[in-house]
Design a protein that fits this description.
alpha+beta, seven-stranded mixed sheet, 6 helices, 7 strands, about 25% strand, globular
């Protein structure tokens, strides 16, 4: 019975939202959502968000509300051959290697009014499936202690305290492999 309920919830998400790559002209909207979702010392700047949308749109997955045309949430990252998360990934789009086999996720954002519907979970599931199909081997992200369990439920393993000190915080490095942990 629970699987039937989950399938129905996912079907409803696809009826309500269009999942696709970002369009360059949507970079400003993404920057505004980032500002809503993260404190100022952690949020991506408008300038860097515009660069990501322009130079790495294939690693930017948005969920657009079909009724309003607004972006409800998104995931964004860059590809690399690096294996450990670096703070420079947040600010230096030149580190993006479209052929890289590892994706460094830079943000999972869902507008407050769209939370609690399973949108973040579906964005992540769709993103991971897409990246495995594109030949990626690993997806890495950093998160605060309070989000570790959430990302574990999405298939990530906690690799411990990250080298990242972005925003003056202590982060956990989380990894998801094409071959599960």
């Amino acid at each position: 019975m629970e699987k039937a309920v989950q399938k129905e919830a996912i079907r409803e998400l696809y009826e309500k939202f269009e999942f696709r790559n970002i369009r360059p002209e949507e970079g400003e909207e993404a920057a505004e959502i980032e500002r809503l979702c993260f404190p100022p010392h952690e949020a991506c700047s408008k300038e860097h968000m515009l660069e990501r949308a322009a130079k790495a749109p294939a690693l930017f997955l948005v969920a657009v509300d079909k009724g309003t045309g607004k972006i409800a949430g998104f995931l964004n990252g860059i590809a690399t051959e690096e294996t450990t998360f670096q703070d420079a990934f947040f600010t230096d789009i030149a580190l993006h290697n479209p052929d890289g086999r590892t994706v460094m996720l830079l943000g999972l954002d869902v507008r407050p009014e769209y939370r609690g519907q399973g949108l973040a979970r579906e964005l992540m599931a769709l993103y991971l499936r897409r990246e495995w199909e594109n030949g990626r081997h690993t997806v890495v992200l950093t998160c605060l202690e309070s989000k570790v369990k959430m990302y574990q439920k999405m298939g990530f393993c906690d690799a411990g305290i990250a080298d990242s000190s972005w925003g003056g915080e202590q982060w956990h490095e989380m990894r998801c492999m094409a071959e599960p942990c």
